[in-house]
Amino acid sequence: MKSPQILKSRWRTGPLAVLAAALTLAACTPSLPPLAPLPVEHPTVASAANKTLAAPARPTPPLPQGMLLDKVVAVVNGSPILLSQVFDEENLLFAEIKARGFQRPPRKAFRRQVLTRLIRERIEIDEAKHHGIEAPPNQVSAIMASIATRNHIPFAQFPAWLERQGISYQAYRRQIAHALTVHRLLEAAVGPTVTVSKSEIAAYLRRHKLRGVEEDNLSEIVLPVAADRPSALIKTQKEAKSLVAALRHGASFSAMAVAHSIASNSLRGGAMGWIPLRDLPRPARPVVAALRPHEISNPVATGEGYIIYKLHGRRRQELGHVYATEWKLERIVLTPTPIRGTKKILATLKRLRLQVLHGAHWSALARALSVDPAVAINGGHMGWVRAGQLSPPYRTVLKHLRVGQVSAPFATRSGWAIIRLLGKRRHNVTHQTLVQEAYEKIFTRKFDAASRAYENRLFDESIVHDLVPWAS
């Protein structure tokens, strides 16, 4: 039998926001900036980080006899969550709130949010373990090392530095590992089920022609709705009206968002940033359109729950044409083998380069020798490509290459290569940019919806017992 405290809708987040929300813990001290997207793993950074993973031990004073060391505050599918874990999480999140300049929310409401976060995390981590998904320690170490580097702190001193900010190094590291694990879980479980058709992209482009777009700078507070429990629905309606009254009498919107919102942006004070009206839930559009700057909306009933909006400002974003530099390239790629090592590969490429410079046909050499089948079949011709389509080694070489020149051999992810620059141009890529934007927006919307459904199913199948009064 499932407990009535099952968290079906107390905390819903989008899949991309799951990673972003947890990884913004990199900003949870006054001088830590928010984390950028996950960096590519660099073995040298990761290995250096692995040498100093443990936080410096601090002497533990003797405890009086009979002192309670810890307490179980909830049980998730038979696994306990301890009060000490709640305290560690609170310290991390309070530090982030302080860094963002938000008012500290009421402790009881915030502690309930923290416990909900831990319960959700435990359910998702258990599911990831069931499927053999985990965060590689060296990638977590690389992320930690990059955070320390960006803050100009030697990694060996990073654990002690965090401790001085009142943050547990191990809790900080665990948050990043858990966020990365959940991200991988959702990518594996949900990603393959999401498709975007050409007709969907075409329909999006018809609705979003190249023109000025009205955008609103909004914040939100999202309260869950248990549609199958009328008493809970009435309770949520009353809570929403009470929050609106408090906000209109001067309560801090950001503090209320942190304490009450179930949205993934709650730790950012509910900030949504600049967003077109059309991207809001349909029931919210007329409500937000009628708001004036700094006004608070009445609660809006949506599929996500009751949403309270605050309008900070409104602007018209003009969309112009997009131009990009493109290069017309051809290449030959060779890969070292146990028989033909790197030295022989480099010697071969240097010989091929000289042959081309003395009149040999590039296409014949590429078809005969290049190990890149997709390009070799076209005689090594890559066509017109933009910087975003090229890996960093290619972009670096192109900085010093003029039209007609052949590069020296250089290392790439797929082997060693030489390229010839056939042409360079500034090209109108507005259509391609809009198509890419359409794909990303449609994919993200579908991915978020599928992930919420997947997470809700996990919650429905879980048994959660809250063991402390403030957890309910």
Structure description:
The protein starts with 14 loop residues before the first helix and ends in a 6-residue tail after the last strand. The chain has three domains: 15-54 and 70-189, Porin chaperone SurA, peptide-binding domain (Triger factor/SurA peptide-binding fold); 212-318, Chitinase A, domain 3, CATH 3.10.50; 323-428, Chitinase A, domain 3 (Roll), CATH 3.10.50. The longest helix has 31 residues, at 430-460. The protein contains 16 helices and eleven strands. The protein has a four-stranded antiparallel β-sheet, with helices on one face. A four-stranded antiparallel β-sheet has the order 8-7-10-9. A three-stranded antiparallel β-sheet has the order 2-1-11. Strand 9 and strand 10 (415-428) form a beta hairpin. It has 472 residues and is α+β, with helices and mostly antiparallel strands. It has helices spanning 15-23, 43-50, 83-99, 107-130, 137-150, 158-164, 169-189, 198-207, 230-248, 253-260, 285-289, 342-357, 362-369, 373-376, 392-398, 430-460, and strands at 72-76, 79-82, 213-223, 271-276, 300-302, 305-317, 323-334, 381-386, 410-412, 415-428, 464-466.
Features:
alpha+beta; 4-stranded antiparallel beta sheet; disordered N terminus; Chitinase A, domain 3
Summarize the structure.
The protein is α+β, with helices and mostly antiparallel strands and 472 residues long. The protein has helices at residues 15-23, 43-50, 83-99, 107-130, 137-150, 158-164, 169-189, 198-207, 230-248, 253-260, 285-289, 342-357, 362-369, 373-376, 392-398, 430-460; strands at 72-76, 79-82, 213-223, 271-276, 300-302, 305-317, 323-334, 381-386, 410-412, 415-428, 464-466.
